[in-house]
Amino acid sequence: MSSPLGYTYSDLHVGLQFRSPGRTITDADLVGFAGLTGDFSELHTSDVYAQSSQFGRRVAHGMLGLAYAHGLMWARTGELRQTAIAFLGISDWRFVAPIFVGDTIFVDYVIVELRDSRSKPDQAIATFDVRLVNQRGDVLQRGKKALLCSKAPLAAVAASQAAELPEGAAR
After folding, report:
1. Residue 162 φ/ψ region, left for φ over 0, alpha for ψ in the -120 to 50 degree band, beta for the rest
2. pLDDT one-digit tens code per residue, 93-106
3. What is the pTM of this model?
4. Which of 35, 132, 150, 159 has a CA-to-CA distance to 167 between 20 and 30 Å?
């Protein structure tokens, strides 16, 4: 079972399922993402254009959904803080349905493969089947993500904890 600092490698197994907290998509998200990426497509930024599109209203950038899906997983939940070393990649990612302003998105993910690293015996690779869903359970995006994991709790977590607490504070 996970500790307050998240799961250790020994807790992980194929079939282990997670669900992220929700995140409601706002107009500010679309405007901010357009500014960050330079993607000011009218489908994302113009109500007049979007109302006449096949979607009938503005749609969030597909890459915004992917970015938020990533952030909602390990980074926001902290579930894999003890073990996550590095994000290795994405495969078979599909944009299945539009994300609209006002949708609350969640990430459902399950470990589908867990294998030892071929080059580092103290590390492993966890592969997750990932589904980005909205408040109705509609799948919006899906694919696989791979994460490099440490088999021992990360020293960086202990160092970060020590730095976060003021001297004399109880744990």
Report:
1. alpha
2. 999 999 999 999 99
3. 0.86
4. 150
